[in-house]
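Q: Sequence in, structure out?
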Amino acid sequence: MGDEKKGMKTILEQLRPHLSDEEIEFKKLSLAGRLRNYLFAGILVTAPLGLTIYLVWIFLQFMDNQVRKILPDEYSPDYYLPVYVPGFGLIISIVFFIFVGWFARNFLGRMVINLYEYVMSRVPVIRHIYSAIKQIAETIMASQSQAFRDVVLLEYPRKGIWSIAFVTNTTQGEVQRITDEETINVFVPTTPNPTSGFLLFVPKKDAHFLNMTVEEGIKLVVSAGIIAPPDREMMTQEAIDKLDSETEKKEL
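A: Exactly. Output:
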């Protein structure tokens, strides 16, 4: 047994220039330790893929069920095929939204939209809900929107504790008038759901602008700090260009 350990140690010393520290430590593990590492690695590889497929499947089933309630059975491919075909409801929904968008840009469509917006603006309670949802949707969807332009670091909720926030706009109107300094609107999201959070009006000089992209900031929030973006100031220019290029490809 002693000779075998000595021989293994000699082999590892010979391979050391070609192996990383993690690989060397892995070689020293027992069979049970290796199997445990393989198990965790397998979970890390398959869990994101499996969860993604599961959520997509649920979404497709939800869309299909909603469309089946509206369309007659004769229009569904399941009526003619012996198996369930997922995605039919999603295709119908996309076609529907495209048609509505085309109709909204026509003269008749604009008249209809102006009419129902006039009616919605006159209904008590409903008009406030409709106005708020419409404004949020237009802010997020508009290409010229300034929503979530930059990622900043704030001392929040008290001094000495830092929080990630997103700049949504420069402060305007009455709020800016009554403040003594240049102020920005920032959104402090909650973890792991970044769609809820707090709106703060912060002096611009107190916000530390970060180099990370908005997508990287959202990943940091959703993952509860597990997925930390790289520090661009500590990277070479070639590595920064490569990272930005990969980010642009994902966005396309």
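Residues 31-70 form the longest helix (40 residues).
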